[in-house]
Write a structure and sequence with these properties.
The complex is a heterodimer of chains A (300) and B (315). Chain A is mainly α and 300 residues long. Chain A is 69% helix and 0% strand. Chain B is globular and about 85 Å long. Classes of the chains: A mainly alpha (300), B mainly alpha (315). Chains A and B meet through helix 5, helix 6, helix 10 and helix 12 of A and helix 1, helix 6, helix 7, helix 8 and helix 10 of B.
């Protein structure tokens, strides 16, 4: 999992105030961004309209059609219990997106204030916060997430918490780095001279100027969270059945690989395309929000 | 240099302390009575449980328990596995060679693919080759390792029948069987890391290629091949070596999934089985062990960096 890479601090400087349509136009100019946005749009629509567009309910068992290959009745075939794979994949999008959004949300809500405080105050407080983040980062993500789910017990909410906690240090570090550079700006000095309190300086003056890297990381973080949830569910330690999850579908389909390869093909493809899409969009956002950085990293 | 290493080791102490608190705290969040898990359902009676609780020190306050645990862990005593009844230390020692073999093989695969592809992409920047390399490495990063494993098993084991579906063979006892069993796991774990390495090598090469000494080397009439392989690569490899050292921790995480799919009796599978079986002493030890390995490899990266680049002075 590559999501532990951290963008550089200077990101915030080129944020600018672009208008929404113009921003979208710039974003779409980046290679592959359109593909990513298209895939995400399809995903969101599937998740929201699942009960309208899914041909069957995801848990309906068609006893006479177990392990049926893809056909006009079941476009992606059926599993060992005779459940329609297409419907399960459509409903699986709900879990993947929900886990991704909540996990990234947790990481942002916890990590961003920590980074702001750490970067703004410096000194002992900074040391303590950053050493805690180092400690969390030093445990391999999947192992930490597994241990958290083991401690809290399996379930949708605990999976979200586990992935959120493991993602937190990335945001804290990112925001701290941006805050360090913003802190020295003239407008912060001016705010201080005006007698602004620390809270106001941090949340009114600093926070808006460190959002660009958070948006970029948020998109990459969605990719990571979707992959992490699928990994946990694949190991049988994530969201428990009968909730349809892509990782869980892969796990239960794996033993039938020779007999019914479609069981492993479609859920894997769904995970792959989703992760790819969020990575594409994250990279494109980085290019648009900070063209200098994209070039420095040789991404273009 | 020596002083720097000593200082870095000392800096690790607060991080280690926090890790130990996190690990200890996490396992005490576990709902249910650990003693009940240990004794097993059939033998539960209150007297036994009280006795066992005293033996394990579970009747003492949490901070005391923590100190006892740290003291024992520092001496290498990580408790006993509930499942196998063996000391956790022995369980880890027994499975370490399996994971080590997977780690070495996969890092080899990632270097053999990642570095050459990264160089080619950088040298032919913005060409078709570069685009293909970029798309491949992005796909490699996005590809769930378990799905890649399943696809490769489907193709090479089930359709072509060239390689075994799963299973571990000791490579020292049976070199050919061991190698055959290792190919797919090493490729899956290795290509994933190779994707990261490709991007890193490419950007490091691009950065170096823009340097003046590269222009000088070209200006004095050196062959392009010499410029790339002798002048550029040497300097571009610096950040790559760092990424490579950092991979050690990632490989351990990846082993969790790979060993589960390919049924390798290594540390990753031990972790998953321990979690599924509520064997919390083992889980605790594995998280601690993984963190230690990661910290050690980070330290190694820093030291290597200074050793490879004399310009870096540790003061």
């Amino acid at each position: 999992m590559q999501q532990r890479n951290i963008a550089l601090p200077q990101l915030a400087q080129r944020q600018g105030r672009q208008l929404a349509p113009e921003f979208l136009r710039n974003l779409l100019k980046v290679r592959l961004a359109g593909v990513g946005l298209l895939i995400i749009a399809v995903l969101v629509l599937s998740a929201v309209l699942a009960d309208k567009i899914a041909p069957y309910t995801p848990i309906a068992q068609h006893a006479q059609d177990q392990l049926a290959p893809p056909s006009s009745a079941y476009l992606m075939g059926t599993d060992q219990a005779g459940r329609d794979m297409l419907s399960r994949i459509i409903y699986g999008a709900q879990v993947s997106l929900l886990v991704g959004i909540i996990a990234v949300g947790i990481a942002v809500i916890v990590g961003v204030p920590l980074g702001l405080i750490s970067g703004y105050y410096g000194g002992k407080l900074d040391d303590v916060i950053m050493r805690i983040m180092d400690a969390v980062l030093s445990i391999p993500t999947i192992i930490l997430a597994l241990a958290i789910v083991a401690a809290l017990g399996p379930g949708l909410v605990n999976v979200m918490i586990a992935i959120g906690v493991t993602s937190t240090p990335v945001y804290a570090r990112l925001v701290r780095a941006s805050t360090l550079s913003v802190r020295e700006r003239d407008y912060i000095t001016a705010a201080k001279a005006n007698g602004a309190k620390a809270f106001r300086i941090i949340f009114i003056h600093t926070w808006p100027n460190v959002t660009a890297p958070i948006i970029v990381q948020g998109s990459l973080g969605m990719a990571f969270a979707v992959l992490a949830e699928a990994s946990l569910s694949f190991l049988g330690i994530g969201v428990p059945p009968p909730t349809p999850t892509w990782g869980g579908m892969l796990q239960s389909g794996f033993p039938y690989l020779e007999l019914a390869p479609w069981l492993a093909m479609f859920p894997g493809l769904a995970i792959f395309l989703t992760v790819l899409a969020f990575n594409f969009v994250g990279d494109a956002l980085r290019d648009v929000l900070d063209p200098r950085l994209g070039r420095a990293l040789g991404l273009r | 240099m020596q002083q720097y290493i000593i200082r870095r080791v000392f800096q690790m102490i607060p991080v280690l302390f926090i890790i130990s608190v996190v690990v200890f705290g996490l396992m005490h969040l576990v709902p249910g009575d650990p003693v009940a898990f240990m004794i097993g359902e059939d033998a539960i009676n209150l007297e036994n449980m009280e006795e066992m609780r005293r033996q394990l020190g579970l009747d003492k306050p949490l901070p005391v328990q923590y100190l006892m645990w740290v003291q024992r862990a520092a001496q290498g005593d990580l408790g006993r596995s509930v499942r196998s009844k063996l000391p956790v230390r022995d369980e880890i020692a027994r499975r370490l060679p399996v994971t080590l073999q997977l780690a070495v093989a996969s890092i080899l695969v990632s270097v053999l693919i990642g570095i050459p592809v990264g160089i080619i992409a950088a040298v032919h920047r913005n060409s078709k080759l570069d685009v293909i390399a970029t798309v491949l490495s992005m796909s490699g990063v996005a590809m769930p390792s378990f799905w890649q494993a399943i696809l490769l098993i489907f193709l090479f084991s089930l359709i072509l029948r060239w390689l075994p579906v799963a299973g571990y063979v000791n490579i020292f006892e049976n070199p050919i069987g061991g190698l055959r069993a290792m190919i797919l796991p090493a490729i899956v774990l290795g290509t994933h890391q190779a994707a990261v390495l490709t991007r890193q090598t490419r950007s490091a090469m691009l950065e170096v290629m823009a340097m003046e000494y590269i222009a000088t080397a070209r200006a004095k009439g050196l062959a392009e091949r010499t410029v790339i392989w002798m002048h550029a690569l040497k300097n571009a490899l610096l950040p790559v070596v760092t990424v490579l050292s950092l991979q050690v921790g990632r490989v351990l995480g990846g082993a969790v999934i790979i060993e589960t799919i390919f049924a390798w009796p290594g540390l990753g599978r031990l972790t998953v089985q321990a979690i599924a079986g509520h064997d919390f002493q083992v889980v605790q030890a594995m998280v601690l062990f993984a963190a230690l390995i990661t910290l050690a490899s980070n330290l190694m990266a820093d030291i290597l960096y200074g050793w490879l680049d004399p310009r870096i002075r540790y003061s």
